[in-house]
Structure formats: C-alpha cells, structure tokens
Structure to design on (483 residues):
C-alpha cells in the first residue's frame, strides 16, 4: 500500500515537471516568435522647417510595443524628449525621442530647421509739401529698411534713379530681397534764366586786366541758382582776339541752359612807323641810370643832341637822372627792373610785374608812363629759351597793349667785346656810316662807353647826322624773334 502511494506520488511529480517544462518551453517559444519591440509614431514631419521668430511647438510622438504574434499593444509608453528648438536662432536642430523597454533604449529623431524666408521691409518717407525743381530734379525724401534677422538695413539699400521712378532694393543675409518703387511726379518746371551782368558783347583794348562781370541765374520761382553756374572760357586781355565766356547751368536731369558773352580784345592803336628822311642817329643807353649818366647828359646838352635811356631800377641813388633826362628832352623807356633773365622770362606775369614796377619808377621821375621799351637781351634773345615761345608771346602782347619795343642796328661793342673808348667810338661811327637811320646800343653804366659819346657827336655833326630821341612812331629796328 505504501509502495503504491509512493509510486503514485512519483508519477505525479514527473507529470507536473513535464507540464512545467512544456509550459516554460511554450512561453519561451511564444516570446521568441512575438519578438516584442517599440514602435514610434511621429506627429508631423520627420524634417520640419520653422520660420525665424515664430513659435515652435513640438507636434510630439507616441510609442507602443509591437510584436509578431500579438501585434501592437494599446498601452502607450513613456517617451522622453531630448533637445530643443530656438526659433530666434537660425540653424538646424535635432529632437530625440527615447523610450526604455525591456532593459533596452529605443529612439527616433526629428530634424527642425529654423530658416529666414521673410524679406526686409523698406519704408519710404514722404515730406509734406515737397516739390521737385528743375535744378535739383527729385531730391530724396528719405527711406529706411528693417529686417527681422539683420535689424536695420537702411545703409544697404540700393537706390536707382529711373526716368519716372526711384527703385529701392535691399537683400538680407539669408538672400531675401525686397524691392519697392517710388513713382516720381512729372518735373516740368520752367528752366531758369541766366542774366549776364554787363554787356553781352564787349570790345576792349588789350591791357593787363580783364575782370569778368559774371552772370546770375534765377529759376521760375525767383530763387537764386547762381551758385550752380559754371563759367567756361578765358579772356587773355593782353592778346588781341575774339573770346567767348560761356555761363551754363545743368539740371540734375542733364538739361543745360547757357549764355555766352563775346569779348573782343583789340590792339591799342599805335601810330604808323615813320622812318626819318634825313640822316638820323638814335643813341640809346641801357642799364642805367648810373654814376656816369649825369656826365653823359652834360655832353648831350652841349651838342643839343637827344638820346634814349632804357632804364632799370638797379641803383636808386641815380633815379633823379631819369627825371633830368626826361626834362632835357630825352626819351625814357623801360628796360627792366631786375634785369634777371631767369625771372622776367619765366612767364608773361613775371615779365609784366617787372615791367610795370619800372613804369612806376619812371612815372615818379617824369610824371608819366612811357610806351617805349627794350627787351633785356633784345627781342631776338635766346637766353629765354628755357621758356619756349615766351618772346613770341611777349612781343605780341606788348605790341597789342600799345607798347613799342626797339632793338638796334649798330652795336658799340661795350657789352664785353671791348672796354676801349676809342674802339667803341670807331664801332659806332663805322656802324652809323652804313645806315641812313641808326639805332645805337650803348650802356651808360660803362664809363668807357659814356666817354666815347663826345667823339661820336662831333663826328655826327660833321657828317650831317641829327641825334634824336626815339618816339612811338620811330622805326623799331627789330631783330626778329628767335624764341
Ligand atoms: Zn641790358
């Protein structure tokens, strides 16, 4: 009986064990076949784009388990979200959703781009009562540009003026472009009027100065636009000729109004040259006055001879001799004030300045200006070659201004060739003997040259020459200009 009970118990245990093993095996097989895992469901797109500055709300996600055998569970799993999106900063963001299930981590990602697709805003200003004018056309009334990302973009606005409108364009850092037009009102004002001051056609004699009287401009509303006047053209007052001065004003739209003044410079009238019919000697003395001038004047007086002095300002102690010579009936002409070739032939202005300084000294001594002169070095000089053409310009200008220059046809030799009085006297006599009319070059700063004069006067008187002072109508004995 005990044996039977024992056998029965053993069999029961075995059966239970077998059942247990079967159950476990079955459960394991079920789990393996089911292969439970996690499935995510994203609301919205996996890749999202968000406009800068707008509120971003994560559309969210839910997760459930799912398996081959039993399918999806109804129960939603607890999802954690990692990462955040800042819609105030451009860029790409990642949101990561994670779930822990059966000791394992499952995750899924969503990419979010914060972008700027909004162009800047351009605002145009309108000034109350503003009207464009002929002169200025349309003057900008003002504008500004603002962009949500870049802020103030006014400085980046490109402004293009077209015929009928102004176009404003600006692009932000994301490449969004805004463009706006401002239509322009028709500008159909009357053009301004240019009024010449002084005569429209002027005739003047050649002189040192020409002062242009100018012009004024007023628009149809009476506003003075003279500041915009452009003056072109030049009058060279010491050259006879026809000149035009043009005054013009140009509007912003490119329309030009102009007026012209004609200035005619005519030569100062000068007498025709009269060549003496009788045998004539014009003694001329350059570079004085000097300590020897007084003695020279005494000699000339004794013979009743007249001569010409081309004076300088080199020695103020003898300026009085200029007045004395003038009162004695001699001619006074300008030679030069400084006798500095490099200075006086540097420009017309330089020559005139030197020349008229000498004129002032002559006027102080004689009471009047002279119109007679001799170029330092003569009109044919080449010492002025450093300034090409200066002698051509000066001979023309001085003649146009009514001055008469004299060269010479008899050279005494006293400028470095000889210092012998007898030789100088011989040179002069021989030279004069060759011409019916002679202009003799001497220098009264050379005592040995002054000393030769008496002998020349004696010879001239004996040979029927008269000694005369140069006048405006005397022959110039011009050498011919070489520069
Ligand atoms: Zn000289």
């Amino acid at each position: 009986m005990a044996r039977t009970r024992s056998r029965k118990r053993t069999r029961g245990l075995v059966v239970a064990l077998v059942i247990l093993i079967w159950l476990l095996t079955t459960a394991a097989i079920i789990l393996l076949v089911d292969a439970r895992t996690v499935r995510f469901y994203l609301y919205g797109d996996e890749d999202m784009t968000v406009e800068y500055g707008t509120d971003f709300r994560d559309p969210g996600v839910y997760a459930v388990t799912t398996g081959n055998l039993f399918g999806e569970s109804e129960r939603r799993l607890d999802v954690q979200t990692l990462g955040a999106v800042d819609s105030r900063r451009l860029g790409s963001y990642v949101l990561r959703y994670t779930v822990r299930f059966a000791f394992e981590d499952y995750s899924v990602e969503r990419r979010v781009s914060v972008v700027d697709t909004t162009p800047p805003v351009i605002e145009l200003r309108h000034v109350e009562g503003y009207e464009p004018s002929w002169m200025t056309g349309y003057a900008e009334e003002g504008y500004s540009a603002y962009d949500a990302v870049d802020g103030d973009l006014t400085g980046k606005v490109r402004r293009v003026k077209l015929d009928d409108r102004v176009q404003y364009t600006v692009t932000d850092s994301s490449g969004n472009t805004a463009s706006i037009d401002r239509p322009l009102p028709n500008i159909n004002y009357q053009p301004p009027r240019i009024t010449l001051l002084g005569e429209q056609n002027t005739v003047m004699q050649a002189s040192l100065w020409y002062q242009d009287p100018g012009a004024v401009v007023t628009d149809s509303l009476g506003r003075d636009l003279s500041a915009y006047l452009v003056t072109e053209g030049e009058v060279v007052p010491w050259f006879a000729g026809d000149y035009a001065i043009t005054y013009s004003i140009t509007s912003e739209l490119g329309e030009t109004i102009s007026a012209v003044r004609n200035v005619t410079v005519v030569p100062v009238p000068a007498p025709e040259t009269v060549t003496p019919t009788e045998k004539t000697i014009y003694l001329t003395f350059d570079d004085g006055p000097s300590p020897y001038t007084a003695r020279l004047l005494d000699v000339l007086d004794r013979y009743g001879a007249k001569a010409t002095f081309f004076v300088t300002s080199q020695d103020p102690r003898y300026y009085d001799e200029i007045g004395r010579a003038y009162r004695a009936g001699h001619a006074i002409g300008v030679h030069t004030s400084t006798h500095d070739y490099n200075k006086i032939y540097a420009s017309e202005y330089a020559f005139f300045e030197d020349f008229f300084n000498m004129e002032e000294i002559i006027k102080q001594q004689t009471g009047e200006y002279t119109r007679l002169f001799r170029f330092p070095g003569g009109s044919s000089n080449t010492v002025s070659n450093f300034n090409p053409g200066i002698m051509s310009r000066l001979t023309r200008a001085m003649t146009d201004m009514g001055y008469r220059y004299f060269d010479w046809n008899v050279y005494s030799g006293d400028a470095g060739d000889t210092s012998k009085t007898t030789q100088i006297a011989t040179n002069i006599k021989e030279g004069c003997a060759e011409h019916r009319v002679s202009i003799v070059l001497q220098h009264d700063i050379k005592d040995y040259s002054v000393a030769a004069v008496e002998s020349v006067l004696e010879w001239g008187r004996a040979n029927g020459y008269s000694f005369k002072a140069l006048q405006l109508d005397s022959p110039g004995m011009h050498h011919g200009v070489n520069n």
